[in-house]
Specification:
This protein has 280 residues and is mainly beta. The protein has helices at 2-18, 75-88, 209-217, and strands at 28-35, 38-40, 44-46, 48-56, 65-69, 96-100, 110-117, 120-125, 142-148, 164-169, 172-175, 182-189, 196-203, 226-236, 241-248, 251-256, 274-279.
Length: 280
């Protein structure tokens, strides 16, 4: 009897040892719709790893930049602080933290970005300007979001495995390897000293980065030298990271950062943070 018991115990132990370890849950998925000029989406979500799907249902380019508000700050404080910063051409107040989000996407398309959210109060914002130069946020394109403490710790979910890393610096995009055609999960890291973003646009046939810079410096007049916009990650504070997923057909693309410089307020692309890449 004792021998039988030992054999059974050994068998059960072996089964337990070879049983696959439970895998960490994936990120929660939240859908945000963008129109001219509003966001549609939930008002409250749990903390943790979250994938945002931004669907552009408007007639203009839109993105969804997520701003975390400091303790005790409200959406009204955000509006007041933002207006004061714009009027004085000063950086945003230090209690506004930029944590990323899905970047600009063409009408009818979807941009996907994944980021870790801590509990707190946030605001989705679209910083993209209309043809008259007014940022969409000043036309009311913002949406408050409360992130509550979830049942599981925020670190419980596993980040999607990235096959490429883009590092944002002053003033460059550093790719871990050449970009190839197909679907990619891209990790974006900001080891720089300032906040940065990366937005990706396909160049129109025969157009180059120099054409885009000339268009930008000429007041954004005339036909845009880009075609489809494929998303990316909106503004990340120094030290932050996020991921985005998109599919690249073969062609020529631009990597751009429009975020204003902390010293002179000019877009970082004017300082050289604009790169043309070829995808084969």
């Amino acid at each position: 009897m004792r021998l039988h018991t030992l054999v059974v115990a050994a068998v059960l132990t072996g089964v337990a040892c070879h049983r696959p370890a439970p895998q960490a849950a994936g990120p929660a998925v939240v859908t945000i719709t963008a129109t001219d000029y509003a966001f549609g989406g939930p008002d409250t979500i749990p903390a943790g790893l979250t994938t945002f799907r931004l669907i552009n249902q408007g007639k203009e380019l839109h993105h969804a930049s997520l701003v975390r508000l400091g303790a005790g700050k409200t959406v009204a404080d955000f509006q007041t602080g933002l207006q004061a910063a714009m009027q004085s051409h000063a950086p945003p107040p230090p209690w506004m933290a930029f944590v990323g989000g899905p970047n600009a996407v063409t009408l009818g398309d979807t941009a996907i970005a994944t980021l870790m959210l801590e509990p707190g109060s946030y605001v989705f914002v679209c910083w993209i300007p209309t043809l008259d130069g007014v940022p969409h946020v000043m036309k009311g394109m913002m949406h408050s979001l409360v992130v509550t403490a979830g049942a599981a710790p925020p670190s419980a979910a596993a980040e999607p495995a990235a096959d490429l890393t883009i590092k944002l610096t002053e003033y460059d995009f550093q790719l871990s390897q050449p970009l190839t055609a197909g679907k990619h999960v891209v990790r974006v890291e900001n080891p720089g000293a300032q906040a940065h973003e990366v937005v990706i646009a396909a160049l129109s046939s025969g157009k180059t980065l120099q054409d885009f810079i000339a268009w930008e410096q000429g007041g954004e007049k005339g036909p845009l030298p880009t075609g489809r916009w494929l998303g990316g990650v909106t503004t990340l504070d120094a030290g932050g990271h996020a991921l985005f997923t998109t599919t690249f057909p073969p062609g020529n693309y631009l990597l751009l950062c429009f975020w204003p410089d902390a010293k002179d307020g000019k877009p970082h692309l004017v300082h050289g943070m604009a790169k043309q890449i070829s995808v084969s």
